[in-house]
Amino acid sequence: MAKAPVRNRRSTKRGMSFKSNTYFYDLPDVPTKEISALTNTKPAIATSVGHGLKTGDVVWLESEENGAINGYYLVDVSNEDTFALMILDGEDIGTITDAKFTTPKRYSFCDATSVKISAFKTKEINVTTICDEDSVVELETEPGTISLSGLWEPDKAVQSFLEDMAEEKETIFFTMKPKGSKRMRGYQVKITSYDWDGKSEDKWQFAMELKINGRGRKLDMTTGAK
Question: Which Gene3D superfamilies match (predicted)?
Fold first, then answer.
């Protein structure tokens, strides 16, 4: 009996390679670009004639009328005069007439050899009172963390900047878009530790811990806000 021909199984690639477009953003300058309107939608849409932004840019938004909106945002550009602010919920901001924005300085970050992002954490809190017949437990959300390690080169502008921000305990912005992914993610972060070490016949290494401040921002670069 003739044997059936052997068929080669087509190989498929699984997972994504460890490559990413990764950036840190500096502290903002005083915002000077005016926003004439912010919609009460989710996400909020800003009107600023001739804003000059493109989808995926990062802005710092500021208002004296409602300081709760102050922060870094990824933007999804609708046209030359309007853009969406990720993840600003316009349903909760009321009417704001004094909002302004600026685009902070960006540092490319290609030095990491390991990245771990825990976007959020939860823990159980026992809130049982003397009047409860059964145990009552609530979930509480804790700030997430980002752990980075890699090659330490202290004379590079980005690493000097990060060391300064760690010492000054400032909140900055971090974005990552894995190559091959359509989504960009952004986080307001504060550096809680910045260490470096080395040994003979090896390269200097760094390890950095970041604490996430608030919700992460997520943007689908092909279809817009998510």
Answer: 2.40.30.20
